[in-house]
Amino acid sequence: VHQFVRNLITEWRRLDLPFRAATVVIAVSGGADSVSLLLALSELRERKKLDHRFVAAHFNHGLRDGASDADEQFVRDLATKLNVELAVGKASSLSANPGNLEQNARRARYDFLRQTAANVGALAVVTGHTINDQAETVLMNLLRGSGPDGLAGMRPVRPLDLEEAETDLRGNPNTILVRPLLTWARRVDTEAYCHHLEVDYRYDTMNEDTAFKRVRIRKVLLPLLEDFNPRIVESLGNTATLMQNLTESADDRPRRTGNGGLPLADLRTASKNEVNDIIRQWLRECRGSTRQLQLKHIQAIERLVFSTKSGRTAELPGGTVTKRGGSLVYKENKVEN
Amino acid sequence: VHQFVRNLITEWRRLDLPFRAATVVIAVSGGADSVSLLLALSELRERKKLDHRFVAAHFNHGLRDGASDADEQFVRDLATKLNVELAVGKASSLSANPGNLEQNARRARYDFLRQTAANVGALAVVTGHTINDQAETVLMNLLRGSGPDGLAGMRPVRPLDLEEAETDLRGNPNTILVRPLLTWARRVDTEAYCHHLEVDYRYDTMNEDTAFKRVRIRKVLLPLLEDFNPRIVESLGNTATLMQNLTESADDRPRRTGNGGLPLADLRTASKNEVNDIIRQWLRECRGSTRQLQLKHIQAIERLVFSTKSGRTAELPGGTVTKRGGSLVYKENKVEN
User: Which of A2, A60, A235, B295 has the highest CB neighbour number within 10 Å of its CB?
Assistant: First the structure.
């Protein structure tokens, strides 16, 4: 058995995932990462190590004339060859959606994955994110000035629907998103396993376009960091895991005012000047400083405190403040992939 | 009053430092950072905002023929002009000390500061570390694959003697090390304040020598990161503060096995195979993975468990395991400045 497959089943066990009788959606773009994941899961099924219903899910973004359709055809052929069910989604209204191209594409893809998971009653959606994706995510968040949450990067297992999901589409709230390559597989490992099986994969030319920050991090920043530490990708992956361990155990303890919520009652009984001080002090604890905070931001938060509408949010540089459950809650902006 | 001085007294208040009747040692190399600190503290004394006995402390490393002595003379003249007491130390046996030049120099300098603090009964030793030093420290630790502790960088206030101090020299255990420029002053701010007062400062040519990793981070890496985020220095400083808040509040809670100690009793009652598994699982939680761990490392830890000598330490890639108080304690390697 190839080392890649052995590592995958070891990680599957470590993550406490079931070995049989579940439905598992596999997100397959056609790139080496997701193709290697599909191939390895398929091999584990053939070897009777896993006995699940697998459903490959491919989303055709329709972004690159011809190439997107060729990607779709490639995944169709591969699924047929491996005897794996396939669901295909197509972007409908991306061109009508201005704003961040990457983020809109990501949202449409996750909406499709959620819909597919709901359709087939999936226990889990698995994706081919590698430790390289993790390293890039940690760096992107570090460059944005993220704190602990951003430096924790992506988690290998999380609920598919996050509390802050940007969509109204909800499936089974217990469906999980699993990234079984995240903590150990380098991009070159996924390519090597495909080569070993003599299976081709597709290249996404967007992965070469340095107009995207993530691509510049991959192509410019990471090679420079490798001059300092040849194993920087693994190091950043480890850092993310350590941060996850720390923030998870911090979640166990009673929340402190600073990092948790700020009770509205404390503010409503304070004088106008005290309110300003309390909010600034709280934001300093949450954000590490009060720099870039302007009077208008503090005023927006004061309106939250004294307004009667609930669920309102104030945008700050680097994060948002939301009124929830009788408290103000700060959440820093961060990216996943 | 210049903004630099106003920021310094604001930070002094935020850090809950006393305003009068203490003895404060000011570490002065002669560079812009420490000269600006000496000038600003001196100005605050003249303006009766602070009423302390100030003792400047300069350490002559004797590393650069002539230049080190000229630095010393520069600091002597400045102290005389400002009417501040001065203590000067000289390196004695650096050449007899092989190994890491930077680290040996740092150790000799801190020994001298500890000795000076003990001689004058200082409450605090203050240094001129800026937010640029903090950003460089965070990056150095990130590049080494540090976890939360390294990403927290330097703290603005800490005991002068750390538990793991490399020296036997101990003064008053309550003496604190304070870095009052750390969270807000950029290097350019220290230079600008010196220019404003028309006071010169010295340049350390070692700050230009890219043989030192810290200099490469300053000269090569940070300028590239500024292409991604023009305020990267402030962002990294904020990240350090957020990490300090998180790890401090994590320190409040009862320690979990993973991030705290591993009780020796658990190991001594386990079978040989179980011991191996428990140690690996514990190290995975502490280090984020078991990669780079070899059999010899596990065996060294097993010797700690079953040996009768106490206080023994095993070196691992990236950290050390020490037997202390009936437990094994993992500590990751990290740098300060």
Answer: A235
Contact A45, A52 (CB under 8 A): yes
Sheet holding A319-324, edge to edge: A262-263, A327-332, A319-324, A313-316
Min CA distance, A239 vs chain B (Å)?
5
Burial class (CB in 10 A: 0-12, 13-18, 19+), B3: exposed
Please list, in sequence order, all residues whose beta carbon lies within 8 angstroms of the beta carbon of residue B244, skipping any fewer than 6 positions away: B152, B153, B155
In the prediction, which pLDDT does A120 show?
Answer: 96
- Tokens representing B117 are 């603090």
The type of residue at B53 is R
pTM above 0.90, yes or no: no
**CB contact, 8 Å: A317 with chain B?**
no
Closest to B32 measured CA to CA, from B133, B106, B103: B133
The answer to whether A250 contacts chain B (CB < 8 Å) is: yes
Q: What whole-number distance in Å separates Cα of residue B121 and Cα of residue B95?
A: 31
Whether residues A289 and B144 touch (CB distance < 8 A) is answered with no
Here the tokens at position A250 are: 């911090």
**Chain segment B59-104, per-residue pLDDT in tens:** 998 876 788 999 999 999 999 999 999 999 998 755 555 567 777 8
Residue reference for tokens 């409450």? B123
Alpha helices in chain A (DSSP H): 3-14, 32-46, 67-82, 101-120, 131-143, 148-151, 187-196, 213-216, 222-228, 232-252, 264-268, 272-287, 295-306
**Contact with chain A for residue B142, Cβ under 8 A:** yes
Asked whether A218 and A204 are in contact (CB, 8 A), the reply is: no
B285 touches chain A (CB under 8 A): yes
CA B227 – CA A162 distance, rounded (Å): 32
Contact between residue B131 and residue B186 where contact means Cβ atoms under 8 Å apart: yes
Helices assigned H by DSSP within chain B:
3-14, 32-46, 67-82, 101-120, 131-143, 148-151, 187-196, 213-216, 222-228, 232-252, 264-268, 272-287, 295-306
ipTM score above 0.85: no
For CA atoms A245, A249, A255, A257, the dihedral sign is: negative
